[in-house]
């Protein structure tokens, strides 16, 4: 669709930490000098705007979808001041207003228009990466996002419900012809054998597990506010996310 690398970040169930992972990967990619776009398509339950410090975004993806205004005016530059150099983060938020959420649930929206928004966003900002924070589960907007993504990054917790739901999602994604799949295990407790866990994921789903991310009480202590990779850059979780971002950057350079 564009020269941007589009990554759909998805989980079968909610509560996997998908928005936190998406936001922090955006930070790490921007720190490496990339122009990164993030779009929150979890419109029934948007939340990533809080991590970027946008408590009440004035113009949102919702308004673009319903034709109230264009893409350009809704793009927020959320690049943290800690990021120096050419890297930057640009953001299309979902609306947290109850009336807007109710309208999305009640009326839905044009999936073709959503794809046009991805294209316009990438073009307007000359993005290197577009990260799509999806709505959990298997639904039409997510499937549409998967069809245009260069990479589907599946996030799962180490429990049987996530394993089964992820298997269904992966099967559907492959039937849709997604070019590339990768996996991230999140919220793993220290008593697990992480090497064995990663090997099991790769054997089960047939693609690379980029990392096993630790359960972090420190991240939870922030109450979903702020960007953990900037708050605690030497924490094992932050360092693991940095390695994942480097792996994603490598996929782009090898394309």
Task: Walk me through this protein's architecture.
The two termini are 15 Å apart. The radius of gyration is 17 Å and the shape is globular. Strand 6 (151-156), helix 8 (160-175) and strand 7 form a beta-alpha-beta unit. The model has no long low-confidence stretch (mean pLDDT 91). Helix 1 crosses helix 12. The chain contains 12 helices and 8 strands. It has helices at residues 18-31, 48-51, 61-65, 71-74, 98-107, 111-125, 140-148, 160-175, 194-205, 217-221, 228-231, 236-253, and strands spanning 5-10, 35-40, 76-77, 88-92, 129-133, 151-156, 181-188, 209-214. Strands 3-4-2-5-1-6-7-8 form an 8-stranded mixed β-sheet, sandwiched between helices. The chain has 255 residues and is an alpha/beta fold.
Helical region count?
Answer: 12
> Briefly, what CATH class?
Alpha Beta
Low-pLDDT segments, ≥5 res: none
Proportion in β-strands: 15-25%
The ordered H/E elements are: EHEHHHEEHHEHEHEHEHHH
Number of domains: 1
- Overall, the morphology is globular
Kindly report the average pLDDT value.
Answer: 91
Roughly how many Å is the radius of gyration? 17 Å
Distance between the termini: 15 Å
Main β-sheet, spatial strand arrangement: 3-4-2-5-1-6-7-8
State the total count of DSSP E strands: 8
Biggest sheet architecture: 8 strands, mixed
User: Can you give the helix content as a percent range?
Assistant: 40-55%
Structural class given helices, strands, pairing?
Answer: alpha/beta
């Amino acid at each position: 669709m564009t020269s941007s690398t589009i990554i759909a970040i998805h989980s079968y169930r909610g509560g996997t930490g998908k928005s936190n992972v998406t936001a922090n990967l955006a930070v790490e990619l921007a720190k490496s000098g990339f122009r990164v776009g993030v779009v929150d398509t979890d419109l029934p339950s948007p939340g990533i705007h809080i991590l970027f410090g946008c408590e009440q975004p004035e113009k949102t993806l919702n308004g673009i979808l319903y034709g109230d205004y264009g893409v350009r005016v809704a793009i927020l530059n959320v690049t943290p001041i800690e990021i120096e150099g050419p890297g930057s983060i640009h953001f299309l938020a979902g609306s947290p207003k109850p009336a807007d959420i109710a309208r999305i649930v009640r009326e839905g929206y044009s999936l073709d228009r959503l794809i046009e928004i991805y294209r316009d966003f990438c073009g307007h900002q000359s993005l290197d990466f577009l990260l799509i924070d999806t709505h959990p589960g298997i639904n039409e907007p997510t499937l549409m996002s998967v069809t245009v993504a260069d990479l589907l990054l599946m996030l799962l917790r180490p429990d049987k419900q996530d394993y089964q739901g992820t298997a269904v999602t992966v099967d559907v994604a492959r039937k849709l012809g997604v070019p590339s799949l990768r996996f991230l295990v999140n919220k793993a407790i220290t008593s697990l054998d992480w090497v064995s866990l990663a090997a099991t994921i790769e054997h089960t789903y047939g693609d690379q597990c980029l990392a096993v991310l630790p359960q972090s009480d420190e991240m939870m202590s922030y109450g979903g506010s702020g960007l953990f990779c900037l708050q605690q850059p030497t924490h094992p979780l932050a360092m693991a996310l940095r390695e994942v971002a480097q792996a994603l950057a490598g996929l782009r350079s090898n394309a």
